[in-house]
Amino acid sequence: MALLELSDLEKSFGAVQVLNGVDLQVDEGEVVGLVGDNGAGKSTLMKAVTGVYPVDNGRVQFDGEDLTQIEPGTRRSKGIEMIYQDLALAPQQDVANNIFLGREPTRRLWGLFPNFVDKVKIDQEAQKMVDRLGVHVPTIHIPVGMLSGGQQQTIAIARALTFQPKLVIMDEPTAALAVREVESVLQLIRQMRDEGIAIILISHRLNDVFEVSSRIVVLRRGNVIADLQRDETDMAEVVSYIVGAHT
Amino acid sequence: MSSNGTEGPVAPATSFRFGFGAVARALERTHVRAESLLVLVALAAIMAVLSPVTGDGTRVFLTANNLFNIILASATFGILAIGATFVISAAGIDLSLGSVLGLASVTGAALVVTLGWPWYFAIIGSLGAGAAAGWVNGFIITRGRVPAFIVTLGMLGIARGLALIISNGRGIYGLPEEILFLGQARPWGVPTPVFILIGVALIAHYVLAHTPFGHHTLALGDNENAARATGINVRKQRMKLYTISGLMAGIAGLIFTARVNTGDPTAGLTYELLAITAAIIGGTNLFGGRGSILGTMIGALIMGVLQNGLNLMAVQAYYQQMAIGAVLIAAVWLDQVRAQQRE
Ligand SMILES: Nc1ncnc2c1ncn2[C@@H]1O[C@H](COP(=O)(O)OP(=O)(O)OP(=O)(O)O)[C@@H](O)[C@H]1O
Ligand SMILES: [Mg+2]
User: Fold this and answer.
1) Whole-angstrom Cα distance, residue B183 to residue A67?
2) Domain locations in chain A?
3) CATH architecture for segment(s) B59-337
4) Ordered DSSP codes for A139-192
């Protein structure tokens, strides 16, 4: 049984139909590359998976459960994480708080006052995560907005990996990264796959997609027009699907 | 993965801004701007020097009685400013604070004085009316997607009109002992409203700085998409914030009633100006993402000192309004200049 099963997803913004009935399945531990032209609907489709965008029609099934009407926070706690194209970080909050945003561990202060955010724990765990990913930040107490684009991108990745996800959606995770950091992210993807985490990788860098994916799905104008096994296709074919030249 | 480039702990970059160790770190941890504390001290010094001299040679400003007066006056809009801090740090605004204070004042008094219900209905009525008005603000802002600026500006008119209707445009005079205690008593020599202010401020500080609710509030003001993406229910969060803001106006209205022994439909007129100014000069970011209750308390004291000092110097109320308005604009202007310098 597939981990993620999307059936007949439709979504429009006003008069503009962005998703025209998308079907897609992703298995456990599978790395799927999702490619397509600018505006093809990739980000919209994935936001429908995380629940940030409610869909007009269709079904989102995850781990055998229908999540279509479930809110983003609950979907996250069920193991769906996404690294958003715009990163979705809170610039004035520090690195540690961003990593734990929406998931703050709490304790009782002096055994009395409930719901006290355990900042010590947040800082420790965030430091561990940052060290594990080898993020170059001067300190986890710095506001995220003061970091470079690449550093921010790694913080967004750290946030997605901190809570044992089952599915990680990465929307252009390497767009702002230098060559060496791109290699790190690809290595990280392979490592996650080996741990059984499913990954959907959205990228315009087909080289990267080919390097780590086992399947490549092409979205065009809100339709899945190709679902290809990596080993049975090549870059020329994928490109021809993306630009609509394939018949 | 590539190796970690930093060795050992590195001090937060922002702590270099102020020179003096422990105080600076304490301020930093509570997100209080050192500048606002300096402004408070400097302003108090100026007011002390400029204020008239009493018979025995002391400055009127510095007498214990006058200092209590400052805190007492600050208590009402200080509690409003706490409401403003919650809403503004989530990138919202509540312009209805002063009017809702007036509505809360007459609602509580009307239940007890006009209808003859037991004394505690003054508390229930004031707090209930405040929270209800805030809830309505939140409901229309989140459901109708009407800008907070417009909704709360409308509520400014509605709440004031309602207060005048309930009271027939006249003060509702003569509340029971128990209520007057909340405004006029001085247990251990300290006016009750000061205790209420401190109590409310401590709880509010705890909530904003140390609970998930507070973290979510700041994140929402910082980047709504980030809040939504991390699973925060943005709509519910906003509803709660505007309800809290209204509740603060309710508490302030109750104190006002108790202090003057009257449910006054004109109570809190233009207090939103004081409350929002106190929050902003206390370090709350007008555009959201940053806010501190302790900073707001310093801001409220600055406004209190300013008002009190101008009173002592016999400056007319009209000029005081102008001064407060000018302080608000100057504070935001200064913030903008600094933000541009940082870029
Ligand atoms: N919130 C929104 N409101 C209105 N239209 C939107 C919104 N989000 C996306 N769209 C529209 O939906 C279409 C698909 O956008 P989407 O961001 O999903 O594309 P994409 O495949 O991710 O493109 P890119 O490769 O440029 O990131 C675009 O035409 C876009 O203008
Ligand atoms: Mg996109």
Assistant:
1) 53
2) 1-79+165-247, 92-164
3) Orthogonal Bundle (1.10)
4) -TTSBGGGS-HHHHHHHHHHHHHTT--SEEEEESTTTT--HHHHHHHHHHHHHH
| ipTM exceeding 0.95, yes/no | no
Facing residue for A133 by CB, picked from B1, B5, B285: B1
B residues 291..320 contacting A (CB < 8 A): none
Contact A103 B230 (CB under 8 A): yes
Q: Is A44 in the pocket of ligand 1 (CB under 6 A)?
A: yes
**In a 3-state reduction of DSSP, which class is residue A82?**
strand
Long-range CB contacts (< 8 A, 24+ apart) of A108-114? A109/B210, A113/B206
Domain boundaries, chain B: 59-337
What is the rounded distance in angstroms from the CA atom of residue A201 to the CA atom of residue A220?
16
Cα–Cα distance measured from residue B320 to residue B331, given in angstroms and rounded to the nearest whole number: 16
Strand partners, A224: A219
Residue in B306, B342, B343 with CA at minimum distance from that of residue B326:
B306
Q: Write the residue in A90, A133, A141 that is nearest to B226 by C-beta.
A: A90
For residue B244, which amino acid is it?
Answer: I
Contacts 24+ apart (CB under 8 A), B55-63: B60/B312, B61/B308, B61/B309, B61/B312
DSSP state of B3: P
Q: For residues A11 and A9, what is the distance between their CA atoms, to the nearest angstrom?
A: 7
Q: Relative to the CA of A40, which ligand 1 atom is closest?
A: 21
CB atoms within 10 A of CB B73: 20
Compute φ and ψ for A78, nearest 5 degrees: -85, -5
Contact status, residue A214 vs residue A26, Cβ threshold 8 Å: no
Three-class DSSP category at B263: strand
The b/e string for A191-222 (b: 16+ C-beta within 10 A; e otherwise) is ebbeeebbbbbbbeebebbebbbebbbbbbeb
Q: Residues near A206 by Cβ (< 8 Å), separated by ≥ 6?
A: A35, A235, A238, A239
Beta-carbon contacts of B311 under 8 Å, excluding residues fewer than 6 positions away, are: B320
User: Going by CA atoms, what residue is nearest to atom 30 of ligand 1?
Assistant: A39
CA angle B48, B50, B56 (to 5 degrees): 65
Superfamily of domain A1-79+165-247: P-loop containing nucleotide triphosphate hydrolases (3.40.50.300)
Which residue has the least CA distance to atom 31 on ligand 1? A39
Can you give the pLDDT of all 343 residues of chain B as single tens digits? 333 433 333 334 443 444 556 666 666 666 677 778 888 888 888 888 888 887 777 888 888 788 888 888 899 999 999 999 999 999 999 999 999 999 999 999 999 998 989 999 999 999 999 999 999 999 999 998 899 999 999 999 999 999 999 999 999 998 999 989 998 888 988 889 999 999 999 999 999 999 999 999 999 999 999 999 999 999 999 999 999 999 999 999 999 999 999 999 999 998 999 999 999 999 898 999 999 999 999 999 999 998 888 888 888 888 888 888 898 888 888 878 877 876 6
Q: Is B10 on the interface with A (CB under 8 A)?
A: yes
